[in-house]
Design brief:
By secondary structure, this protein is mainly α. It is built from five helices and no strands. α1 crosses α3.
Amino acid sequence: MTHYLLRGALAGAAGTTALNTVTYLDMALRARPASTTPETTVQKVEELTGTPLAEDSQEEANRRSGIGPLLGIATGVVAGALYGAARSRWPGLPVPLLAVAAGAAANLGSTAPMTALGVTDPREWSAESWISDLVPHLAFGLATALAYESTDDTA
């Protein structure tokens, strides 16, 4: 099982690269700003734990801008590991179904904590916001599935 988890984690890293690529391409094409929700999530955790990241406000902001995206990378790697676990447990499941499930897992893994912390509320998102969020996560799922399936499970 460990082998499948490792393959999945590596595939999740590839999926995260695809998600980031689609997101940054969207930002470039539509001239839209980057989301501030990752940094706001880190700030909410700081507030809840009473643990500031630094004494200086600029240092705090800089650390948040690094930690926020790292949380996204971790979410992608974990979602990829879940893909590997699912593939190991249910080898007959169709790959397209698993790809969509991987994208949904990555989306849920990032959106659920932000919703729980009060950073965002998906019920209030516009259709454009949903598309901006779902398309990169579908790219994540597809890239994760392709990366996982293209590796040899006997290695």
